[in-house]
Amino acid sequence: MPVIFGIFFDAFNMLSQILQVLIIVMVVLSLLFSFNVISGSNTFLLNLYQGINRLLDPILNPIRKLLPNTGGMDFSPLVLLLVLELIRNALIRYAGNYL
């Protein structure tokens, strides 16, 4: 297996894990705000949610355009998590062919 592939895989894996954590935090905060578990006046959590949302919007917006309108539910984070996992599994299989 070429060394450059190992470096690429490690970088993708790290970025994928960071994105997964950000997506989960964003979804949990969104649900907590939606069900009024956390007040909208909590500026720290509101700023955290908005910051994560700004980071992920460029990635999630193209997915949102492809998905049908489901009302209040946004399935784009779930689709992104699935796509990241599919790419990761494909890279693992590709690496397995060269071991």
UniProtKB/TrEMBL annotation:
It comes from Novosphingobium aquae. It comes from the Bacteria. The chain crosses the membrane at residues 18-38. This is YggT family protein. Pfam families: CCB3_YggT. Keywords: Membrane, Transmembrane, Transmembrane helix.
